[in-house]
Specification:
This protein is mainly beta. The protein has no helices and 31 strands.
Length: 444
């Protein structure tokens, strides 16, 4: 069974970078046998074995309106091997595609060179794209991590370089744009810090306004992955009142308030929400009702459901469910979590089991019930996203150089394969501006 793990966070640059910071095990933690209590496993159906707008009435449900738009794919690039990868990447950098609203297919537009743009974010106006450059230390131990800004051409979706800033850390794994459009928020996996940057009027990234250094470590059995803080995600809540940092190494979701005048983070009254020791929280997503949040735990392949108090920015634990079938005996780790725009379903990726886990949301309680698992038809599905209309789900198979495009059944949330796109080492998928009317078709 193929496996994936960020214990090999350093993508092994073949030039002036160290081959690996020894704060992580090369392979010992490569994939962790799911260590969730047996009653956390849920039974369910295992399914492993023209540029116009279109209304889709799939499965007899209410039609969802998919729109042609530009899609941006982040990668690990040539000269590196992705974490959990088996061979050196051939990717150039950020890939731009045009989405076909009829079937979700992607037509190539552009590939622009930049090192390890493994996560991307787009500003609210969809005029600028921001990427991490996930790099470790140089041979002298100096951190090489960066974040970069790119201008989006609204006429054709292509991007051009604007500027780059250091992250004062190693292996920046995630970034997001504050909904105000005024700040860029980033997380350094290797060094466990969360830098904050102003976004200037021309889209450039300004000089850091803050840099929160997390401390501590998890107390679970996987010491190679939790010997210290590992900042894996930073995001803003739906009410735009609080900012949260997900720390895999500390088994905590840090909670702050961001001062929009100064760009400084202040701890909330309730400073963090914890997950079970050794879980290794990786990413989180909010429910559109603003009342619930879901945290996916990488090391034990589980999802924690929380009730969310938007006034205090605090969480109350509701439930923990495995992302794997009860009878699964292999090794696997989780990666991405997304909530469907309707709020009806939650999706999470399993690297090793190589599936998307599907859960139904109880709209009153926020608790989850398993729907089933859908094979991604590839190896190590790291990145996954849902188009804004909720019509298509995209799963990036890191180790088999492909994106599986699924149509979402609007009745039950199940996934039906619609298209299959071949592209190198896709690890994040983000949706940009709509295609302007009258735009000429892009050759296949």
């Amino acid at each position: 069974m193929s496996s994936s793990d960020d214990s090999t966070r350093d993508p092994q640059k073949m030039t002036n970078q160290t081959t690996r910071r020894q704060f992580l095990s090369l392979l010992g933690a490569a994939t962790t046998i799911a260590a969730v209590a047996p009653n956390a496993f849920a039974d369910g159906k295992d399914r492993h074995d023209d540029d116009h707008d279109h209304d889709h009435d799939h499965g007899g449900g209410k039609g969802s309106k998919a729109v042609a738009r530009y899609v941006y794919v982040g990668t690990y690039t040539k000269g590196f091997t992705a974490p959990g990868g088996t061979e050196e990447s051939t990717a150039l950098g950020i890939y731009v595609f045009k989405m076909d609203p009829r079937d979700g297919g992607l037509r190539f537009v552009q590939a622009i060179e930049t090192e390890n743009p493994s996560f991307l974010a787009i500003d609210p106006a969809q005029k600028f794209l921001y990427s991490v450059n996930e790099l470790g230390p140089d041979n002298s131990g100096n951190p090489l991590g960066r974040v970069s800004a790119w201008a989006i051409n609204q006429a054709n979706g292509m991007i051009t370089f604007v500027n780059t800033e250091p992250t004062n850390g190693t292996y920046p794994a995630h970034l997001s744009v504050h909904p105000s459009g005024k700040y860029l928020l980033a997380s350094n996996y290797g060094t466990g810090n969360f830098p904050i940057y102003p976004i200037l009027s021309d889209g450039r990234i300004g000089t850091k306004t803050d840099d929160f250094q997390d401390t501590g470590n998890g107390t679970g059995p996987n010491k190679d992955r939790q010997e210290g803080p590992h900042a894996h995600m930073i995001l803003t809540d739906p009410d735009v009142k609080h900012v949260f940092g997900v720390d895999l190494g500390a088994d905590k979701v840090m909670a702050w308030t961001l001062d929009l005048d100064t760009g400084k983070l202040s701890p909330n009254t309730v400073e963090y929400a914890g997950v079970a020791s050794g879980s290794g929280c990786r990413h989180m997503a909010f429910h559109p009702s603003k009342n619930f949040a879901y945290v996916i735990n990488e090391l034990v392949s589980s999802i924690d459901a929380f009730a969310y108090d938007p006034k205090r920015g605090a969480f109350i634990w509701l439930q923990t469910l495995s992302t794997l079938p009860r009878d699964f005996t292999g090794t696997s780790t989780t990666a991405e979590i997304r909530v469907h725009p309707s709020g009806k379903w939650v999706y999470g990726t399993n690297r090793g089991h190589n599936t998307v886990a599907i859960f139904e949301v109880d709209q009153k309680t926020g608790k989850l019930d398993v729907v089933g698992w859908e094979s991604t038809r590839g190896e190590i599905p790291r990145g996954m996203n849902i188009d804004p209309s909720g019509t298509f789900l995209y799963a990036g198979n890191q180790n088999s150089n492909s994106i599986a495009v699924f149509r979402v059944n609007q009745f039950n949330g199940e996934l039906d394969l619609s298209e299959f796109v071949h592209t190198p080492v896709p690890v994040d998928i983000e949706f940009g501006p709509k295609v302007e009317k009258g735009q000429p078709p892009i050759p296949v």
